[in-house]
Amino acid sequence: MKDQRSDLCSRYITIFIVVSCYWIVSIATVFVNKTLLSSQEVALEAPLFITWFQCIVSFSICYTLSRFGGIPGVFAFPKGSPWSMDVMRRVIPLSIMFTLMIATNNLCLKYVGVPFYYVGRSLTTVFNVVFSWVLLGQRTSSKCMLCCGFIIFGFYLGVDQESLLGSFSLIGTVYGVIGSLMLSLYSIYTKKVLPSVNQEVWLLSYYNNAYSIILFLPLIVVNGELPVLWNYTNFDSSYFWFQMFIGGICGFAIGYFTSLQIKVTSPLTHNISGTAKACAQTVIATQWYNETKNVLWWTSNLIVLSSSCLYARFKQQEMEQNSRKPVPEEKQSLVSADELQSPRDTDASKDLENIHIHRK
Predict the structure, then answer these.
(1) Transmembrane residues, as ranges (predicted)?
(2) What are the backbone angles phi and psi of residue 290, rounded to the nearest 5°?
(3) Mutual orientation of helices 238-264 and 2-38 as an angle, nearest 10°?
(4) For the chain, what is the domain count?
(5) Cβ 279 vs Cβ 307: under 8 Å
(6) What is the pTM of this model?
(7) Helix, strand, coil share of the chain (percent; to 5)
(8) How far apart are the C-alpha atoms of 355 and 186, rounded to whole Å?
(9) In which domain, by residue range, is 32 found?
(10) Predicted confidence band at 356 (pLDDT cuts at 50, 70, 90)?
(11) Buried b vs exposed e over 257-278: b needs ≥16 C-beta within 10 Å?
């Protein structure tokens, strides 16, 4: 009994540390990227080039760790090569989602303020429901559907209030919606691809960044950034490259902690954690940039957050009910298909759902 309690406590601590690191790194990454994408000091109108450079930094870190086997006495980096044909076949579909996800995230951040960035990307839960039905044939309860309806209403209210305040960007909002869609797909398929890399998030981060370096090149051309790069005059600035390098470090860290959080919890928990984190990020951003928002604007944030939390609670209850039902052996792998989790991840994900609900 003591061993069980000790094991449960250890899992709680691990999950708490991973989620906390994800929050810290993610919030820092948003602010650093906003500076890179919009500050007068950098003034480089090439968001995809900036994101591509971050992938290069992340890949370089992973490559170095791979060559030396990790950091002696700290951790061992798993062996693996992104240039194996078998690995490429399994991982590249996920890397395409990863590339589009970080590209649209940064494009959204370029055109909208950090406070609105939260609302602009709040539809991930809604897309989860849609893809669970379209891809997996999983039906969603009426209570969860009602929560999704409120999330959509909160999103609409936030867009409406942002427009009234004169800071609305249609293209930024569109990129935010696409970013939510890609995040939902990425979260779902990460759980499917991790077994192909022996559940090693280091390897997955390594491979994703390796393939993204190539995948970003045509996107940079299509986005019309080559003339901008040709005419840019600050490439000899040490401050510019310092900012770019810090952005790359943050990009590496957020990629790792995103995959790690999905691994120790579930795609649903990851999305809810991201929603709650974004709420804290919004409060910090309004203070940092000295922005004043009206009551309805804040109401939209509250609606999205509370609806997402209720969705998580209802989903948790459904999972508990399903776990008590006898399931034929040939269908057991579909019990948690909405989350696409392995059996050993189920208890940890339920634990974190409870943590999130009580913390909120």
Answers:
(1) 12-32, 44-66, 87-104, 116-136, 143-159, 165-189, 201-220, 240-260
(2) 55, 45
(3) 150
(4) 1
(5) no
(6) 0.76
(7) 80, 0, 20
(8) 24
(9) 2-359
(10) very low
(11) bbbbbbbbbbbbbbbbbbbbbb
What long-range pairs does 46-49 form, CB within 8 A, spacing at least 24? 46/220, 46/223, 46/225, 46/228, 46/229, 46/232, 47/103, 47/106, 47/107, 47/110, 47/223, 48/103, 48/106, 48/107, 48/216, 48/219, 48/220, 48/223, 48/225, 49/220, 49/225, 49/228, 49/229
Reading the block at residue 124, the tokens are: 């991930």
Name the least confident of 69-78, 210-219, 284-293: 69-78
Written as six digits, the tokens of 358 are 């009580």
| CA contacts within 13 A on the Cβ side of 129 | 21
Q: In the structure, what pLDDT confidence band is assigned to residue 1 with cuts at 50, 70 and 90?
A: low
Q: What is the pLDDT of residues 240-292, one digit of tens each?
A: 888 889 988 987 888 778 778 877 877 667 767 876 787 788 888 888 888 88
Greatest alpha-carbon pair distance for the chain in Å reads 68
Report which DSSP code applies to 84. Answer: -
- Residue 126 CA to residue 122 CA, distance in Å, equals 8
Instruction: Say if residues 224 and 214 touch (Cβ distance below 8 Å).
Output: no
Give me the pLDDT at residue 222, please: 93
Share of the chain above pLDDT 90, in %: 24
Among all chains, which residue has been given the structure tokens 């979260």?
Answer: 187
Asked whether the predicted pLDDT for residue 105 surpasses 90, the reply is no
